[in-house]
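Newbie here. two chains, one complex. Structure please?
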Amino acid sequence: MWRRIRALVIKEFLAVWRDKRSRFVLIGPPLIQLVVFSYAATFDIKDAAMAVLDRDGGPEAQRLIDDFGNSGAFQITRHLRAGHEIKAVIDAKDVSVVMVIPENFSRRLKGGSAGVEAGRPAVIQFISDGRMSNSAQVLAGYATRILERHNAEWLKRHGGRPVPAAVVVTRWFNPNLDSQWFIVLGLVAVLTLVVVLIVVALSVARERELGTFDQLLVTPMRPIEVMIGKTLPGLVIGLGEATLIFAVAVLWFEIPFLGSVALLYGALVVYLLAVIGIGLMISSLVRTQQQAILGAFLFIVPAIILSGFASPVENMPDWVQWLTHANPIRYFLIIVRGIFLKGLPANLVLGQLWPMALIALVNLGLAAWLFRRRLY
Amino acid sequence: MKAGPALRLKGLIAKEWRQVVRDPSSIAIAFVMPIILLFLFGFGVSLDARNVKLAFVTEAPSAVASRLAASFAHSEFFDLSLAATRQQAEAGLLARDYRGVLVLASDFDERWARAWDGRGSAPIQLILDGTDANTARLVQGYVEGAWGKWLQLEAMTEGRRIDIALMLDPRVWFNPEVRSRNFLVPGLIAIIMALIGTLLTALVVAREWERGTMEALITTPVTRLELLVGKLTPYFLLGMGGMALSVAMAVFVFDVPLRGSFFVLSGVSAVFMVSALALGLLISTLAKNQFVAGQIALVSAFLPAFMLSGFLFEISNMPAVIQGLTYLFAARYFVSALQTLFLAGNVWSVIVPDLLAMAALAAVLLLITAKRTPKGLD
C-alpha cells in the first residue's frame, strides 16, 4: 500500500514541478505578496496631512499649531483663510483633517485658566473625512492627547488647577502598536491557505479533465490510497510555504518569537489538514479545473474576510461570529499570533487547537466519503 | 462568400453569449457571487469596536473606584468585568478574554485625595493587548474619552474644580455616526467587481486555449479587434448586472447613503468593468492554462484590490514604493470614486482623475492583450 502511495506522491510532485509556470506560481506570488502586503497593510498613521484655519491669529494659537506640527502624527500642509475653503480641501482629499481655531481662542484661553465656571474653554474644531472613519477616530485620539498636553502646560505656566489623574497606558505583546506584526503573522495563514487549497483542489480536477483519472481507477489503488496520495503533497508544500514565511517574519520583519516551535508546527499540520480536506472536497465535487478554481475562490474569499485577519471577529454581528467558529483560519490566526507575540502556553493553544482538529476531521471524513462516491 | 465585420462580430458575440448561458458558472460568478460576498462582507468587515471586553481591578475597594467602575460599565463601548486580582486579569489578557485591563493601585484612594488638593496626580493604569494594534489604539481612545468624561462629571457632582482651557470638538464629515460600514461597503463593491470582472474573462479564454478552440478561432477571418470586442461584450453585460445588484444591496440592505448621481456611478463602473475584464483577458492570453490563470487572477486582482486599493488600509500611510505600486491597479481609483460617490457626492476633482486613470489602464491592458494575441499559429 505505501509503495503505491509513494509512487502517486512522486507523480503529484512531478505534475506540479515539471511545469515551469506552475512552479513559479508556488513560490513567486506568495513571496511577492508577503513583502508588498506586509508594508501595504498598515493602520499606523504618520504625518496625516492637516489644514489649519486660524481665525485667532495670536501667538497662543501659533503655539498650539506648532504643537500639532511637531507631534509626528500630523503634518500641516495647508493654511486656510476662510471657512468655505474647508469643504474644498476635504472633498478633494487634499488633507485628512482640518483644524479650526476660533476667533475667541486667546480670550477664552485666558478666561479658562480662571476655572470652568468663570470662562468657558476654547473649543477647537477638528473636522475629519468620514470616507476613512477608522483614521478619523485614530486621529481624533491623537488630537485629544496633544490638546491634553497643551492644556497641562498652559495651566502650569498660568497657575491653574490641572486634571488630578491621568490614564497611564502600558501596551503588552506589541509595545509600539506596530500593526505590521499583526498583518505579517496573519499572512502566514492566508498565503498558505491560497497555495495549498489551489494545489489540492486542482490536482483531481486536472486528472478528471485530462482523462487520466480513469487510468488511476484501473490501477490497484484503493480510494483511500488515492486520497492520501493527493493529501501528502499539499501538506509538504504547505509546510514549506509556512516555514518560508516564518523565516521572513523573524529575520526580515524582526517579529519576536516567544513561544514553542513544536506547538507552532503541530498547529500548522492540523490547520493544513483542515485546508486540504476542503480542497479535496472541492476537487471531488467538480468536473473541470475552472469549476475547481471557482470553488476555491468561493471558499477563500469569505473565509479570509470572516477570520479576523484584517478586522476583529468581535466586531461582527453575533450570527456572523457564530459562523466563524466553522472557519479553521480563525483558530490558526489566534494560535500563530499568540505563539509569536505572547508565547502562548500549551493549554491555551489546545483550547484553539481542538476545534480546528475537529474541523479537519470532519473535512477529511467528508472528502473521503465524496471521493469514494465519485470514484465508482 | 465573405462575411462583413459586423456579421462576424455578431456571430462571435452570439457564440460567446451562448457559451455563457450554457455554462452556469459564468452566471454564478456574475450574480450569485456578489450577493453572497457582499452579504458576508458587509456584515463581516467592521472596524467599529463596540462592547470591548475590559477587566477592572481595584486593589483597594473604595467609593471612588466603584463610581468609576459603574460609569465604565454603563458605556456602550465597554463590556466590563470585575477581576479580583491583577494576576487574574493579566492571565485573561493572555487568553484573549479581555482587550485591556484597568488597574487602580492600592494607593489610588490616598493619591486621589491628595491630587485634589493640588499635590501630585493619581494615575490609573490601562494594560492593552497590543496583538491587534489597530483595535488597541481605538480602545485606548475610548478609555481616555470615557475617563475624561467621568472626571468632569465627578468634579461637578463632588463640587470640585478642574481647569480646562482647551477642548476638542471632533466632527466626522460624510459619516457623522462614524459607521465603518458606510465607507467599507462601497470599497467592498469595488473589490468584488475587481474579482468578478477578472475571473469572468481569465478562466474563459484560458479554457479555450487549453481545449484548442482558440486556435480554431484564429484560423477564421476574425480580426484581433473583433475577437476582443466579441469576448468582452457578453461579460461586460454580465458584470454590469452584478454591479447594479451590488449597488442596490448597498443602498437597501446596508443603508449606505448614495449622495452622488446614479449616472456618474454607472459611467465610472462601466470604465472600471472594462479594465477588470481586460486584465482577465490579458491573464488568460498570457497563461493559456487554467491553473496558472486562476492563480494569477487571484494574485493580480483580488489580493491587490483588498490590500492596495485603500479600501481598508489607507494608501497615504504606506511606504512610498508601495504607494507607487497602487497606481497600477484600477481598484485604487474605483474605491476612491465609489467612496466619494456614495458618501460625498459628485466631487469632480476626485472623480475625473480617477475616471481618466481607469480609462488609461483599460486602454493599456487591451492594447497589450491585442499585441499578445497571436494572429496565426506558431
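Moderator note: Chain A has a mean pLDDT of 85. DSSP finds 14 helices and five strands in chain A. Thread marked as resolved.
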